[in-house]
């Protein structure tokens, strides 16, 4: 089994791999084209980044700069908005629903590195998917950790670190993120 196949299967894999590096290089080129597009020519998403993501929904807008690890694992619904400086480290599937918005510097991480320092030095990690529902608001500088699901209509406060699933309609804040209000 290749390292990419292991990554896609949710198994431990080595991220220091030629095939994976080639995929990351493709993403860097698409991200560069998107981020360096002249402001007067900017649309919601530069065509090479749109092609990399496969079939994003309509009317998605990613402010520059934007960064992703692979791009091929990002699945956007319609009318998704990313403010400036957002990062998606999409070693696993990242599913984002319709009408979801991200504040500046929001980040999504799918990779969980080995806890053992020897394994970590070998580049071992496991990729866990992140799912974000419809009509979700992710505040600026929030961080969504591997394996998290955020339900429809939820709000993640600015600067929150989301380590656990968030129920539909819930508002979470803090580090680690915890529910507030009713």
Keywords, please?
4 helices, alpha/beta, UDP N-Acetylglucosamine Acyltransferase, domain 1, 182 residues
Topology of this protein?
Elements (H helix, E strand, L loop, with lengths): L2 H6 L4 E2 L3 H18 L11 H7 L7 E2 L3 E3 L5 E3 L4 E2 L3 E4 L4 E3 L4 E2 L4 E3 L1 E3 L3 H5 L2 E4 L2 E3 L4 E2 L4 E2 L4 E2 L4 E2 L4 E2 L8 E3 L4 E3 L2
Parallel strand pairs: 2-5, 3-6, 4-7, 5-8, 6-9, 7-12, 8-13, 9-14, 12-15, 13-16, 14-17, 16-18
Antiparallel strand pairs: 1-11, 10-11, 18-19
Helix pairs in contact: 2-3
Q: How would you characterize the overall build of this protein?
A:
The structure is a single chain. The chain has a single domain (3-180), classed as UDP N-Acetylglucosamine Acyltransferase, domain 1. Helix content is 20%, strand content 27%. The protein has 4 helices and 19 strands. The strands form 4 sheets. It has a 7-stranded mixed β-sheet with strand order 2-5-8-13-16-18-19, with no helix packed on it. Strand 18 (171-173) and strand 19 form a beta hairpin. The protein starts with a helix and ends with a strand.
Count of spatially separate domains: 1
Rg, alpha carbons: 16 Å
How many alpha or pi helices?
4
Helix fraction? 10-25%
Strands of the biggest beta sheet: in what spatial order?
2-5-8-13-16-18-19
Largest sheet: 7 strands, mixed
Total count of strands: 19
**Which structural class should the secondary elements be placed in?**
alpha/beta
CATH class placement: Mainly Beta
CATH architecture designation:
3 Solenoid
């Amino acid at each position: 089994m290749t390292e990419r196949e292991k990554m896609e299967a949710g198994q431990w894999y080595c991220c220091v791999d030629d095939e994976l590096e080639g995929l990351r290089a493709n993403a860097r080129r698409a991200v560069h084209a998107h981020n360096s597009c002249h402001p007067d020519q900017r649309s919601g998403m530069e065509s090479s980044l749109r092609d990399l993501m496969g079939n994003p929904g309509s009317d998605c807008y990613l402010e520059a700069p934007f960064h992703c690890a692979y791009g091929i694992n990002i699945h956007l619904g319609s009318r998704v908005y990313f403010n400036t400086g957002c990062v998606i480290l999409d070693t696993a599937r990242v599913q984002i629903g319709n009408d979801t918005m991200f504040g500046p510097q929001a980040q999504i991480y799918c990779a969980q590195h080995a806890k053992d320092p020897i394994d970590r030095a070998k580049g071992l990690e496991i990729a866990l998917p992140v799912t974000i529902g419809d009509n979700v608001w992710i505040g600026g500088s929030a961080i969504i950790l591997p394996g998290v699901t955020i339900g429809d209509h939820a709000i993640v406060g600015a600067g929150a670190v989301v380590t656990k699933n968030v129920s539909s309609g819930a508002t979470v804040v803090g580090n680690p993120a915890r529910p507030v209000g009713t």
